[in-house]
Specification:
This protein has 149 residues and is an all-alpha fold. Helix content is 70%, strand content 0%.
C-alpha cells in the first residue's frame, strides 16, 4: 500500500486537476486565499483514511488540522474550528481499513462541512461546496491509490 508521501502527492495532483478543471469550465473562480485552504483540506482528506494507525501520515494529518484550526481561530471562526475538531476525532472509532476505506465514508465524512454551516449559520450551499469537494477529492485520491475503488 502507498505511504503518506504518495497519498499527499496524489491529493495535490488530484486537487489541482479538479480545481483547474472547474475553473476552466467556469464553475469556480480562483481565490488565492481560499485555494490554500482547499489544498490543505484536500491533503487532509487524503490522509484521513489512514490516521487510525500510528504513522507519519497521522502526524501530518493532525498537524494540518491544528494549523487549519489555528487559522480559523485567528480569523474569529471559532465554530468552524470546533466542527473541524469533531471531524478530526472520527477515525478514533474505527479499526484500520475499516469504514474509513469505503466510498460511502468518502462522501459522508465531510458532510458536516455542508450541513452544519447551512443549518446553524444560514450559509448557502454554493459557498460551502468547494470545501466539501476539496476534502472528497483528497479522500478519493487515497482510495484510488489504495485500489479500494
Amino acid at each position: 500500500m502507498p505511504g503518506y508521501k504518495v497519498h499527499v502527492s496524489g491529493s495535490i495532483v488530484a486537487g489541482a486537476l479538479v480545481l483547474l478543471g472547474l475553473a476552466n469550465i467556469g464553475l469556480y473562480v480562483i481565490d488565492p486565499q481560499q485555494v490554500v485552504v482547499l489544498f490543505v483540506l484536500c491533503v487532509l482528506g487524503a490522509l484521513f483514511p489512514d490516521i487510525d494507525t500510528d504513522s507519519k501520515g497521522k502526524r501530518i494529518y493532525y498537524s494540518g488540522m491544528l494549523l487549519l484550526s489555528l487559522t480559523l481561530i485567528y480569523f474569529d471562526q471559532f465554530q468552524w474550528a470546533a466542527y473541524l475538531g469533531i471531524l478530526a476525532m472520527l477515525p478514533g472509532i474505527s479499526a484500520h481499513r475499516g469504514w474509513t476505506h469505503t466510498w460511502w465514508a468518502m462522501l459522508m465524512v465531510p458532510i458536516p462541512m455542508l450541513i452544519l454551516p447551512y443549518y446553524v449559520y444560514g450559509q448557502p450551499f454554493p459557498t460551502l461546496l468547494p470545501y466539501y469537494v476539496a476534502f472528497v477529492t483528497g479522500y478519493f485520491s487515497h482510495l484510488l491509490l489504495d485500489r479500494e475503488l
